[in-house]
Task: structure prediction
Amino acid sequence: DDPAGVDEPCMVEGWPTSGIDDCDLGLLCLSVNPETLEGECMQYCQGTPGHWYCSDPGRQCVEDSEGAIVVCLPTCDPITQDCGDGMACYPTYQDIWTCWPHGSPELGAYGDPCNFVNSCDPGLVCLDSQSAPPGLPCSDATTWCCLEVCALSLGDAQCPGFAEGEVCVPWYEVGTA
Result:
């Protein structure tokens, strides 16, 4: 009778991914806490496959890995981590940074192995292990690593592995950010 709107708290029924929620039509309850079944309503993208868009310019269409769910997520700043509770700023579609639910409460610290874009704690990004300094739990060549996002303007000393030769490098090629 009183559906939740975009960015408003929502509830799902049964289990976190049941698809039954109290969001308004055209919205989906995301970032659902598996214990409380509470989340936040996000709008589905408009358009067609390959031509998705969001009516809000502060949001970006993001697809799940199978392309089954396409939602408008808020864009964000990976340095300031300006996402809401339970969310973090991750690189997604076309290297645009958007707020995603943080997906791994057990792992995700600096140097931990990771498998998905949202596996790392806020302020960290899942990168190829070849980017990691030696000695981290994830530094073997068979895995990906949670490594820190850095601000080029602050220099290399901000990097946790600076003593082992870790440096801050640009995410985007010059002129493409």
In short: The radius of gyration is 18 Å.
